[in-house]
Fold this protein.
Amino acid sequence: MFKSKPKHSYIDLFEGVLIGGTLVAATTFLLGTKKGKQLQKELRHKYAEMKHKAEKMKHKAEKVLHSKKAKRIKRKVKAKVRSLVKTKRAKRHRR
């Protein structure tokens, strides 16, 4: 009459305990030991360094996008697209 739900195996429980234990161990290491605190400091430094590099790259990309050459290319592409669209429309009307 009613379908019974499948019983969960102990494997699911074991996976949960294993994942939880790993997270607790990692947190304890990072927050509770000298090496963990040193690692935190290194990670913060690397993060700030990478963020700075990303901001420089973003600035360079914006500069390139707004350059005269980029604008010329954009105009050429738009013109080409317009001509292709006109050609396609003309072919459709001929049929």
Observations:
- The mean pLDDT is 85.
- The chain has one domain: 10-94.
- The first helix runs from residue 10 to 32.
- DSSP finds three helices and no strands in the chain.
